Every structure is written in C-alpha cells, then in structure tokens.
Amino acid sequence: MSVDADASQAQADHGQGHAQDGDQEGGQARSGRPQGQRDGGNQASATPPEDDILVGSDTDPSAKEGGRATAGPGAAHFARETRSVFLRDASTYVGGTINSVNFRFGDTARATLLAGPLPDDELRRLRRRFTPPPHYDDCKRQLGEDHLLVLCGQPGSGRMYAALSLLDDLSRGQVSRLDPGSDLTSLDSDDEDGRIARGHGYALEPADGRLPELHLDRLCRLLADRGAYAVLLSVPEPGARGAGQVRYHRTHMSAAEEAVLDGHLAVELDGGPSGAREAARRLARSARVRAALGLEVLLPAEAARLAGLVARCVTGELTEEELLTECRDFAAEQVREWFAGSPAAETLPMLRDAAFRVSLAVFGGSSFNVAAEAAELLAWELAVTADPEQVPGRPVLSDGLEARLALGRATTETRRQPVVAGADIPVRTVRFLGTALAPAVLVHLWEHHHNMRGPVLRWLDSLGQDRREDVWTRAAVAAGELCRLDCAHTLQELLVPMAEADHARRGLFVATALQGVLEDVEVGEALRSLVKRWSTSDQANLRWTAAAVLSRGTATRTVGEALNRLGEIGTWKDGRLRTVAAESVAHLAGFTTDREPLARIRAWLGDSRRPHQNLGLASTLLLAELVVEDVWNPAEELGGREQWPLALAVCATRPQLTTEVAGLLWTALNTDRSYRTALTVLAKWLRKCQGKPWEADVMRFLPSLVLTEDDRQRMLSLIRELSQDLDEPLEPEHAHRLLQAAQAGGAR
Question: Coil, helix or strand for 634?
Fold first, then answer.
C-alpha cells in the first residue's frame, strides 16, 4: 500500500487525518525505517543545508536572524511571578542615611536649647492612646537611673512617641521637643541662657553631625545635676546587630500592630454605638481592607491612622469604598516619604537607599544577591547623574543586611527557584513587606522625578543583557510597567532601540515588556498597531521581535490574526525567520488549547509551497519540544502540567485533539528533512516520561503514531536502541511498557 493510501485509511479509522502530504516535493515521503536505523542514514545527510527545518541550529544562538526565541529554563515563570506583583490598583516611615546619634556641633561659646513644650492637648492624647512597645519598662528604669537614654531604632517605628511617653512618666508633664539643630556639645552648668530646666524632659530627633560618647557622659552629668531627663533618637549603624553594647543605648522595637490598632479604636469609639468597636476590629482585619492596604505589617502611625478610618466607617462618616480608597494611599504615602527631595537626598548614601528600594520594586521575590547587586548598579547610575565628576564607590563593611531591609520595609525568606540547569534549589530571596509598594515606587518615580528616568532606563537596558533569566525577565516586566505609565517615552528611549537590535535577548525583553501592556485599554491599540508595522518591516530584526511579541497571544485581537502574521514572517525571504515564527506558533498552541493553531500547522504542511511546508514542520517539532512551564502565556487549563511536553498536555486537556497532534508529529517523522529532529524529540519523551505524571499519556499517545508496519518497526527499533544505550539505558520494565504501546498501534 502506498503512503498516501495508507494515510487515507488511517484518516477514515481515526476520524481526523494524519498527514497525506508527507513531503510534497521530490517524492521524499518516508513511511518507515529499517530496524536499528535511527538517524535516516545517507538520505538524511543528503538534505541540503538550506532545508534544515530549525534554522539557526549551527549559528550564534544570540543572533536574531535564523535564531530561536527560546529563553532559558524558568524565564516564563519569573516573568509571570514578577507581573503578578503589579496586578493591583494603582505612614510615617522616613528613609534616610544610617548614622549614629546625630547633632549639630556648635562653634559659639554659648549653647542655646531651642525647646518647644509639648502642648497639653497633645500630652492628653499621648496618655490616652500610647501603646507601650516591648521593653518599655526597662527603658523607663534606665532613663530614671541615668537621666539620659539613646533610643536606637528605625524611623517610623514609633520612637518619638515612646520617647515622649517615657519623659512624661518621669517629668510629670514637663516635656519639650528640641530643635534638631540644638547645640548640646557646649552646654555649661553655669550657662543661664537656654539652661536645662530643672525636672524637665527633652526629646531630640537626629540632625547632622555626631556626638561621641564623651559628650554623652557630660550631657548625662548635666541632666542629673538638674534632675532633668533627655531621650535622643538614633538609627542603628550599618551592619550593627544592636545598640546594647553602648551604655546609654537601648534598642527600640515597634509596638505590635494589633495592640496599637485596638488601643486607638478603644479611644476613637469610646461612648460610641454598642458593638461598634468589635465591628471596627473586624473591618480593619477584613480581606478587602488588607488587600487595599497592600502592606503586610503596619507601622504604629499607620495602625493609628487605620483605626481612625475604620472608626469613621462604622459610624457612617465614610462609606466602605471611601475607606478602601484611603487605604490604597498608605503605600503611596510611604513612597512619598522615601523619595522626598532635599539636598541630603543627593548624597551617595541616600542615593544608595533610593536605588535599593527601586531594585526591590523590580526584583521582589528574587535572590537577595541579585537585588542587592542590581541596586549597586543603579546607585552608580544615580551617582554619576547627580555628580558626573564623582567616582562613586561601594561600602564594604558598613552595609548591613538588617539595616538595608529595614530601610526598604523588606524581608528575606528561603524559596525554591529554577536556577541551576532548570532544577529548583533553595535561594534566599527578598521582597517588600506588602504587594502595594513595588507598583507605588515605579508610579511615583515616573510621575514626580523626571531626572530619575534616564538612569533607570539605562539600568534596565543593561539588565536586559544579563544572561540570567531571573534578571532580564524581571527587568523586562518592570519596563512594561513603565511603558504603561508613559508609553511614548519608554518606547522611544528603551523598547524600540531594543526591538531593532541584533541580539535575540533584546527582542525577548521587548516581547516580555509588552505582553501585559498590550491589554491596557489606554495604549494597547496603539501598541498592537506598532507590532503590526514591525511584522511587515523590511528590517529582519523588527520582524523577529514582532514574532516574539505575537507568541504571547496579546498582540492581536484573535489567535487567527496572530497566526496569519506569523505565517508571513515565517515564510518571508524563503524562511529566514522560520524558526522564531514556528516557536511563536507553538507558544500560541499553549496560549489557547483550541484547534486553531493545530489546524493552521496542518494547512501549512498541506501547502504546495516549500517555505510553508517547512514552517509547518518546524512548528510541529517545536510544539513537541516545548515544555508547558516555558510557554509565555499558558492557558489556565494547562495548570498542574507545568513539566509536561506541550503537545502531550494539549492532548490530555483536549482528548479530541490527540489525533490531530499525532498526525502532525507523524508527518514530521515521515519527512526527510524533519525526520532526525522529530525522532530525537520522541526519544526525549520516551526517556523522560519514566516515573512522571505524563508517562501514561505517552503510552496512550504512541499507538497514534503507528499507521503502517514501517511505523511500527521504526518505533520498536527506537525503543530497543534506547534500551541498549550503554550510558543511559531505559529501565527494563519501562521499556517493556513502551514496546507494548508500540505494538498496540493500528498498523495494517
């Protein structure tokens, strides 16, 4: 029986046809192989180089023309993970330089205390609402004994309220806040001007300069002589574990969020309606409110603010929607504090803090080492922008993990990530303590700090050249968010030059950046028109990038339209870009598990034009080779099958498409110029499926590839060859099951 007749009979038996074309030119259809012959022998080697189905196999893999759009293992996973951070609606924490206790050194002979007495109403409010933090009593005892306390903690942790409360307890209401510029180094016990008041309590925020312990001893003596007290606020030295090693220092810890919230609610709703306090507590802890906040842990001032809002909501002053709107501003307020402009903000330490926060926005969930190194690269860009004559350096020992995390409201955790050869290994990762901070950082920078744009875009461009999938994919997703915020600027300055570049990773960067933005109601239509122009451009690099963008499934209104453009790209100039187009077709088959991509591949295989046949064969091979996890935008129904070959996952999800998929692979196995590659892919399936969840699906699929006796002999020969491999033989029991599956084929 001829190949065509045999295939026709198979079509009648299976309901949907396997390939009837085989190879449309030169009568090169191959119905089988002699037993033991796997690579096609002389006939395969006689295939001219220009007929290689996967163009670019012998070329520079980083080049666009002829190359694939393949990224390394985990790239699609990292892109999806990062994109999820930005899927949300678009605080008194002040970031700053980490120093010791800071004061202004006086140059005059006389010191003046610029003190502002705490108003009575604020004292009353403090007494009613203050929630003691951990170790409050220890701090109070130390202040009572030494008259001086240096409270060491992060800004925004409630240090000032704790200091005022301590002073109020000991001075009985005689409490003053000192001007940060107050000169304490020249105080004299005989100085009547601005002398320390007897029995008074003073609180001081940090300012420029540093007061050595010698001056603290002297200040302590002056305070004791007057029966007065002072609490000075400081932040930990970078790299320091705590403040316990210095006599006057105590480490400050924030009061628990729940305690602060409950304390303020008790005051806000004192005398209110029955049950209002409990209703406010439930509302403050509700999923909707927590999601709107986007912060995992609230600072004391934020908890107090939330208490006031939910109290107003339960008493009818605010609607729940108005409450949620207010809650969404918490993260934005924190970011405004972080990036508040001032002369000090242009110093290298402050720029490093800003760079770390931006890096966290981009690399949240990534390795801490990746985020920290990226932050240093951005700090360099910011420093040379602020002062082109400066050669910025890096701190070596004065950069501690704890201080850096505190300045970024971040945490580390151990997660498993695909880093080494696609295998998951434990990695120490870092992220913001809340999902709202990352998008808020990017929005704030792009809307309020124009001169940050250049350094940030140059930074993202350099990260786009990094070989690590964890780096360039996350940078690309962040670039997409910036494109959403200002499409014209980000396109012109970053994405269009990348689209025109020769390097394949730059094209992948553009495709990854645009994937989500193409669905944006504001700019999506314009971007789709741009991708359409790229797909018909005379520049091969732009066509290549367009193919990579089309693989995401969001660049056109329908899958059919995307397939049309990929067909044009894949057959352009006799298939110069066939491989990238074919791979994009395979990704679309994972984007939608409908029949349309498979039907289009079958149509190309049945076309009389050789470039179209080759595109169909290449699409088939890549459909069989691609793993679900690496599909850029997989259909939801493929969930749970991340490690499966895409072709098998489609068959398992839509069993009615099994014959269609098998027919495509059968054609590739029976065509000279795709035979060896198809057999290699099939061999990978047979090796890797052992013990995997998709092993049974391979057993069910194999009989669909056996239409003739030659097909059966080819399959049996392949299984025996794999079983007899000296380096990696199949397990006997596994090989036996494969042989049984091959024997069950419907050959006649």
Answer: coil
